[in-house]
Design brief:
Structural class: mainly alpha
Low-confidence stretches: none
Helix content: 55-70%
Radius of gyration: 19 Å
Strand content: under 5%
Largest sheet: 2 strands, antiparallel
């Protein structure tokens, strides 16, 4: 079963992921997906964290997003009352969650694009080496901060 799984990894996933899978004596595989919620406030009920938006792990902001959801909700209600606070939470954290999902999809496209023929890949996905990918990963905090700032202008 393990040999079959490793062969499937070589055939189906990006070479970098397949190599990691191949080297692990006890491999595992977990699907990565995301979910955009068009609405996170329903009457007097608000969704927070992964219940509001399921973001791929690429931006590295899952725990941060959950804490920021709670902070935004509390601050909005204190400053504006329940009705207006929930509406503000919907606008701000809806924009923030959607921005993180977009960032995660962009980050993850590098891996999935590796399965495409070279001529169908976007420029950065053709030229990135592992070191370039890791350098880009180091900038995640700045990307999350930018997404947060954009969501506060909504």
């Amino acid at each position: 079963m393990i040999a079959w799984s490793k062969a499937q990894a070589r055939a189906l996933v990006a070479p970098q992921v397949a190599e990691i899978f191949e080297r692990d004596p006890r491999p595992f595989f977990q699907a990565i997906f995301d979910l955009v919620s068009p609405q996170i406030v329903f009457g007097r009920v608000a969704l927070l964290g992964d219940a509001a938006f399921l973001v791929r792990p690429h931006p590295g902001a899952g725990t941060t997003k959950c804490a920021m959801d709670a902070e935004c909700l509390a601050d909005a209600i204190v400053a504006h009352g329940i009705e207006a606070g929930l509406a503000l939470y919907q606008r701000r954290q809806g924009a923030f969650g959607a921005g993180l999902v977009r960032q995660g999809r962009s980050d993850g496209s590098y891996l999935t694009d590796q399965l495409k023929p070279r001529e169908q890949r976007r420029n950065k996905d053709v030229s990135w080496a592992v070191d370039d990918l890791m350098h880009d990963h180091d900038g995640r905090s700045a990307q999350v901060k930018r997404i947060l700032e954009e969501s506060r202008r909504v």
